[in-house]
Amino acid sequence: MVEWFLNLEGFPKFYWIIALIGSLIFIFIIITTFLGVDGADDFDDIDADTGMEFQFITFKNLIGFFTIFGWSGIACIDAGLSNSITIIISVFCGLVMMTIMAAMFHYMKKLNDSGTLNYKNAIGAIGEVYLTIGANRSKMGKVHIRVQGSLRELEALSDSLGELKSGTIIKVVEVTSNGVLIVNQTQKPIEPIKTENYEIPASTRDI
After folding, report:
1. Residue 22's closest CA among 80, 85, 94?
2. Using CA atoms, how far apart are residues 110 and 151, in angstroms rounded to an integer?
3. HSE of 53, CA atoms in CB hemisphere, 13 A
4. I need a surface site. Which of 56, 112, 155, 182 has the fewest CB within 10 A?
5. Looking at the structure, do residues 44 and 99 belong to the same domain, yes or no?
6. Which residues, listed in sequence order, are joined to residue 183 by a DSSP beta bridge?
7. Are residues 7 and 107 in the same domain?
8. Segment (H or E) for 105
9. Distance CA 29, CA 64 (A)
């Protein structure tokens, strides 16, 4: 096996090295992620402070890129394709893999966040009406508002004397027992409003 590897030409040897190293790290990351090992999310600290919900360039996604880049390149070499075509195809396959992984981890995170959402954290937050809200709680509408670091679409009512139409800037003043936001019209602040966060009791988090 070692002799076979040493006898490879430089181009295929490069792809084999990328494929093998990438596969080992990729398998390790996938196992730790799905088993929920502490610290597994630290692999994504490349752009953790960007504020973007959909993260394309992360450590996990790059490993996915190089893994598929390597194996698709090996397949092209075995098929007898030229070096230039091999590079083009392997780069394309790697980018497709990055996109798939970015979408997968994005939606996994959204599912996890939605399961632990505490609506009280929305109190005092500023948002925007998405679907018109009726006056004096006559018609439930929807608002776009950032809660627990994610932009969410939540149901809302208002005690306002007039209806709040789409695009109206609102502030959350109360949350009902069933998670409906009570909002009032306001102006968009120059500085973001900092609100107190509430922790969900451990006894109710898993219900």
Report:
1. 94
2. 10
3. 14
4. 112
5. yes
6. 158, 172
7. yes
8. helix 83-115
9. 10
Is this model's pTM higher than 0.90 or not? Answer: no
Same domain, yes or no: 106 and 162: no
> What CA–CA distances, in Å, run from 121 to 25, 118, 127, 129, 179?
37, 6, 13, 18, 11
Judged against a pLDDT cut of 60, whether residue 31 lies above it is answered with: yes
Same domain, yes or no, for 128 and 187? yes
- At 128, which amino acid appears? E
Contacts of 47 (CB under 8 A, 6+ apart): 55, 57, 58
Query: What's the token pair of residue 175?
Result: 């949350």
Question: Dmax of the chain from CA atoms?
Answer: 82
Mean pLDDT computed over 185-199? 60
In this structure, what CATH number is given to the domain that contains residue 149?
A: 2.40.50.140
| Confidence tier at 104 by pLDDT (50, 70, 90) | confident
**Residue 154 structural domain:** 119-195
Residue whose C-alpha is closest to residue 102's, from 53, 144, 161: 53
| Encoded tokens for 113 | 């966040």
Instruction: Kindly report the length of the chain.
Output: 207
The predicted structure's pLDDT at residue 38: 46
